[in-house]
Write a structure and sequence with these properties.
This protein is of the alpha/beta class and 340 residues long. It has nine helices and 13 strands.
């Protein structure tokens, strides 16, 4: 069961956001949690090596800290390192995978979920983006050629949790503005304000926030029709779109629509979540969540309650999303009595 699996938290974020400080805090200061920190360098240049400079030619050379945490530098072969750790994984409450220079965590998520050597031992617990309140806007504003999304926008889009760090270095007005902007880009990430990377670890570790049930915890106003909201000028390429409507979906049509959507738009869709009612499935409530074209789908833990209105909900986070078009296409998948 997933309770037996060791949770992996993937941490993304820009250089200077405070990742090394966070790692140092976990390894040297706190003593509630036993964590294996894997530093994964995807960039050309190793910048975060101050801490693990004396480390290891071979990945199995873990540095063990006084508080029982361990640290290890992974050069590329994550599967091998996690494989070696699996024998000792019960010693740890969690694994923190710190990624440098990686905008898109999808390959890691995919590997952990689909490689049996990984999925027998580990589960993705959450994707956490560490952001520097003072410089985040500048990173989000960075213009890439060909209208591509910059790394900061992608990191925000993928996150379940955003650790908004260095909040002591900005004014209240700046903080409000930054948080508002994060909310338009990624409505479902919880923002945790921190200084000097000291976030209570229980606020982002071991919560299983990367799960299919995540959509159940949404703020209902997120799904309200755009036209009733005050229009805010949103210049970010990345945005979150919520769609909801009542009725039962036609399973075959819905599957065809999703397959087409993911085939044509997978690169633009960073995260998707859904809560569904299908015709002919009784009171089973279905949920799904995905990263790009990798979708996990299945029954929710609790069924539709007796008399509960069957409201389908969808969340799409990505770029170039048209809410009206998505709503129309999804509503065309509703089962109509004459379809029998």
């Amino acid at each position: 069961t997933s309770d037996d699996l060791t949770p992996i938290t993937v941490v993304t974020g820009f250089l200077g956001a405070g990742k090394t400080t966070l790692v140092n805090y976990i390894l040297k200061e706190q003593n509630k949690w036993k964590i294996a920190v894997l530093e994964n360098e995807f960039g050309e240049v190793s910048i975060d090596d101050g801490l693990v400079a004396e480390s290891m030619d071979a990945p199995e050379d873990l540095i063990t800290m006084d508080n029982g945490c361990v640290c290890c530098s992974v050069r590329g072969d994550l599967i091998r390192t996690l494989g070696q750790l699996s024998k000792r994984r019960k010693d740890f409450d969690a694994i923190l995978l710190e990624t440098t220079g990686l905008a898109d965590p999808a390959p890691i998520v995919y590997t952990v979920q689909t490689n049996p050597k990984m999925s027998d031992h580990y589960r993705i617990d959450s994707i956490v983006c560490l952001a520097d309140a003072k410089h985040l806007e500048q990173h989000l504003d960075e213009v890439k050629p060909d209208g591509a999304c910059n790394e900061a926008q992608q990191q925000v889009a993928f996150a379940d949790k955003i650790l908004l760090n260095k909040t002591d270095l900005v004014t209240k007005e700046d903080l409000v503005r930054v948080k508002k902007r994060l909310a338009t880009m990624n409505q479902f990430a919880t923002v945790i304000e921190t200084q000097r990377s000291r976030a209570p670890l229980e606020s982002f570790l071991g919560l299983n926030s990367f799960n299919m049930e995540g959509i159940l915890a949404y703020d209902p106003s997120f799904f309200d029709d755009e036209s009733t909201k005050e229009k805010t000028h949103n210049t970010d390429l990345v945005q979150s779109v919520g769609v909801k409507f009542s009725g039962n979906l036609h399973a075959q049509w819905f599957n065809m629509f999703m397959m087409d959507l993911l085939r044509e738009r997978a690169a633009d869709l960073y995260r998707t979540k859904g809560l569904l009612s299908f015709h002919g499935q009784g009171d089973t409530k279905f949920v799904f969540q995905g990263v790009h074209e990798q979708i996990n789908f299945g029954p929710a833990e609790k069924p539709w309650a007796e008399g509960e209105e069957r409201i389908n909900k969808f969340v799409f986070i990505g770029k170039n999303l048209d809410r009206a078009e998505l709503t129309k296409s999804l509503m065309e998948c509703l089962f109509k009595e004459e379809d029998k």
